[in-house]
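Before the break, one more example. Copy the sequence into your notebook; we will annotate it together after we see the structure.
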Amino acid sequence: MSVVIRLSKMGKRGEGRYRFVVMEKRSRRDGEPIETLGWYEKREKSENKEVNKERFNYWISKGAKASSTVEKILGKIDSL
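Here is what the structure looks like once it is written out:
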């Protein structure tokens, strides 16, 4: 099973609200996650985000890959 950390869309249409989730690579974007790690909210002038760094590093150590979008949002994975 290939596991990936990616964004799952939530909220109303047109809003930029997402969750950081751990999922199997082949599952749908908004399917059932293995674990929810935090959230991300994109606004016109700012960005709000919160992520459980301890659990994020745990999943990376277990072999999960972060998507390119998650890497951009969180910065370098090594800095966590």
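DSSP finds two helices and five strands in the chain. Residues 53-61 form the longest helix (9 residues). Try to locate both features in your own notes.
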